[in-house]
Amino acid sequence: MTGASEGGRSIASMNVAPGLFSGSTPLAVRMRPRNLDEVAGQRHLLTPGSPLVALASSSGEQGAVSLILWGPPGTGKTTIAQAIAHSSGRRFVELSAVTAGVKDVREVMETALSQRDLYGQSTVLFLDEIHRFTKSQQDALLPGVENGWVILIAATTENPSFSVVSPLLSRSLLLTLQQLSDEDLGMLIDRAVADERGLAGRFALTDEARGDLIRLASGDARRALTALEAAATSVAASPQDAGEEHPTITGEAVARAVDRALLRYDRKGDEHYDVISAFIKSIRGSDPDAALHYLARMIEAGEDPRFIARRIIVHAAEDIGMADPNALVVATSAANAVQLIGMPEGRIPLAEAVVYLATAPKSPSIIRAIDAAIGDVRAGKSGPVPKHLRDAHYAGAKKLGHGKGYLYPHDAPLGVVEQDYLPASLRGRRYYEPTEHGNERDVGARLQKLLRIIRGG
Known about the structure:
It is built from 19 helices and nine strands. The protein is α/β, with parallel strands linked by helices.
């Protein structure tokens, strides 16, 4: 049998690693670490004596604490669960909240109880995407977790405070996984190229291709290995590589395999700073199209969406401020949405926030006000708090004159009274100066009336 034909050549005749073509186990699965020592990243959770290490090294009740692993996709949640089960010799059962129901959970619990009582073997239940379970489904886990029938390791990409019921959360240890660094991803890629379980050294990988794979991954190990496998498959089927002992995976091959242009973008280099600078300046300049372009470049280059969301929040307060106070609400809502739903869906609320901010009226009055106030404090222009504003609730305060003469604004017909609030050395000092833009036009007019009463002007 000659095997299936690919580009005029028999696949059987190609010099390729096993598992590159359909019907085989994906590279990301084959390269899954067999123990915690092979896990990339997450060093903050894998120190000697940590709960994860203790659980993996003990087959008995010692260290048997249920865990909730919270982190972005591709950070090793499933890998850690399997490594713990295999390292400790425990029975391992895996369920997905996408397909499992209460009946499946109860069956696992009953079997786990039997295994423990009859054979003394404990069970690790790995439940992926626990945030997809309803409250009643999560409640079904409680008896097994509380009575020690199973050691639950639940994985979620969403904030457990919102997605996991309180009783289950209180009975488990919450561990937060971090996105893999470029160094971690590079190590995984190098291992996959050389390891017998991976490409087994049958391919050469250029530095450019390696860097492209790291950027494409955006901290996701599964994405990195999937792209590597796709690129290797593309190179293996390419006529120009026919007969080569070690076909070379180039940057062009990676781009061809994943069907997208690879941007020159270094998350730690000049391009990172240049693009984010252009992004913010486009929003400040009220050009939503330019802002969306730079947002798209960051997303496609694998920029951390949380970084983008933080910059949007800062811009809402710094460059828009009181001209449209709702801008900060929109920005923080977009950040929360990204945290809850992840990417790629997170691009939508990010884009909505960007368009809102770009088209909103602008004012730098807030940052100017707080920086001016901080400048005075740093320059030593503080002065004592006026006695009538000091705390008068503790014993002896009134004898010191604290609170004496304080006028309660709510007793006045207008809710405002003439009264000194600043220290004497700063009397009359102005920090906040509203502009005539957007909401601040009304704020400025109202503030003038307030200050005329407060300061007797």
